[in-house]
UniProtKB/TrEMBL annotation:
UniProt cross-references to Pfam families, sorted A to Z: FBA_1
Name of the protein this chain belongs to: F-box associated beta-propeller type 1 domain-containing protein
Residues covered by the F-box associated beta-propeller type domain: 152-292
Lineage: Eukaryota, Viridiplantae, Streptophyta, Embryophyta, Tracheophyta
Origin species: Solanum tuberosum (Potato)
Signal peptide (residue range): none
Length: 405
């Protein structure tokens, strides 16, 4: 899909504006069927349909111009990096892309898995790096988090926002827009490696999409888990009246996962602690018992909570087991070839994904994506791009506002 620069320009545009549309076609490939349907535009003949053939809800006085159709019905589906480039199209586009309404629409509509933030776990790393699945259309400024006032550890990621921890403070930020906020201090001590989850779900109906931060922490000298919750709406922390008494080992693994209103935390007792954020109800989910030497990861696949394990059977052959549902029953077992040929077997690690049908596997310093439906293996990290002692957070390239309250 190609457009001339003139198609996008308003009357107030600068005639000397640079051409920035080389990445537009690749950025909108997955949305082309939607463009045909909404715009009523025939890309083969490059001609408009008659006005009365447009859907009634987008007809205005006179004919719609292609730049207006694109602005209204395509931009919300593009990743933040592409939108930052398109601000140079005209004053009108710059104003629209910076508006709260477009921010709201894009954070709801653009939900595709964009890549990983990763950081060294063995020491306080000065650099937080980003690994993009499509560098031409998806990315963040580099270095990734140098706009924050101090060095931070990445803790949680959700729908375009990151939760980070400084020496004494929590930060919520959008690394694509460099928008950030310092959270007020919590009432309870969360520890150096807090079991904490960022919960953010953009809503199509409500432009004010607030977020929460939920920390699960063990009560001192008691086998009890408490929950402290930050709300961006009130800009304050509160302690939940709910407690979890059912864990044999109340030791939690740092970080967690949020989806469909529930925060999930892995524990050291082969259980998952689930916490319904709205109702403030905890629950326990049992994980499958694995053979010695096999590790798994809690992740999201096709909108469902999943626990995925991977094991190097021999040489370049790996076995992937996918467990899903509240019962964590085995849903699928797949044997894949990651090539090239190896004479040794290697330990591997499953990385979390979001809004994807793919399984991400780290083998030494390589990262592979196995696409379940296409049965295709894709290498997304070259040798030495990342080491084994790294923490990876899946990321969505969004315009979501971190300072909303």
């Amino acid at each position: 899909m190609e457009f001339s620069q003139a198609d996008y320009m308003n009357d107030d545009s600068d005639d000397n504006s640079p051409s920035i549309f080389k990445g537009f076609s690749s950025a909108t490939t997955s949305q082309r069927h939607g463009i045909h349907r909404l715009a009523g535009y025939d890309f083969k003949t490059e001609a408009y349909q008659k006005v009365d053939e447009f859907p009634a809800h987008i007809i205005r006085k006179g004919d719609k111009k292609i730049k207006d159709l694109v602005k209204e019905h395509v931009l919300p589906f593009l990743p933040a990096k592409s939108l930052m480039k398109f601000k140079a199209v005209s004053k009108d586009w710059d104003k629209w892309i910076a508006s709260p309404l477009l921010t709201h629409q894009q954070s709801f509509s653009c939900q595709s898995f964009s890549g990983y933030f990763y950081q060294n776990m063995s020491k306080w790393d000065m650099n937080t790096m980003f690994l993009s699945l499509d560098p031409s259309t998806i990315g963040v400024p580099s270095p990734a988090l140098d706009f924050l006032p101090e060095v931070v550890k990445i803790l949680s990621s959700c729908n375009g926002l990151l939760l980070c921890q400084g020496l004494e403070k929590y930060y919520v930020c959008n690394p694509a827009t460099k928008n950030w906020k310092i959270l007020p201090p919590p009432w309870y001590y969360h520890g150096d490696e807090p079991a904490i989850v960022l919960a953010f779900e953009p809503s199509l109906r409500n432009i004010e999409a607030y977020y929460h931060v939920i920390c699960a922490f063990p009560m001192l000298d008691q086998p009890i888990i408490g929950f402290e919750i930050y709300s961006s709406e009130s800009d304050s922390w509160s302690c939940s009246s709910a407690y979890c008494f059912d864990l044999e080992n109340p030791c939690l693994v740092g970080g967690g996962l949020f989806m469909k209103g529930v925060a999930y935390y892995e524990t050291k007792s082969n259980k998952v602690l689930a916490f319904d954020v709205k109702e403030e109800i905890p629950a326990i989910i049992s994980l499958p018992v694995l053979q010695v030497g096999r590790d798994g990861s809690l992740t999201q696949m096709d909108g469902e909570l999943s626990y995925i394990t991977a094991f190097n059977v021999c040489e370049n052959v790996f076995l992937i087991d996918i467990y899903q549902g509240m019962e964590m029953s085995l849903n699928r077992s797949v044997s894949i070839n990651l090539g090239p040929e190896r004479s040794l077997t290697y330990a591997c690690k499953v990385l979390p994904c979001v809004n994807s049908d793919a399984v991400a596997i780290q083998v030494r310093e390589h990262i592979y994506l196995y696409h379940i439906r296409e049965q295709k293996v894709e290498s997304i990290a070259s040798p030495n791009a990342c080491g084994s002692a790294k923490k990876f957070l899946p990321y969505i390239n969004s315009l979501a506002n971190a300072t909303l309250n």
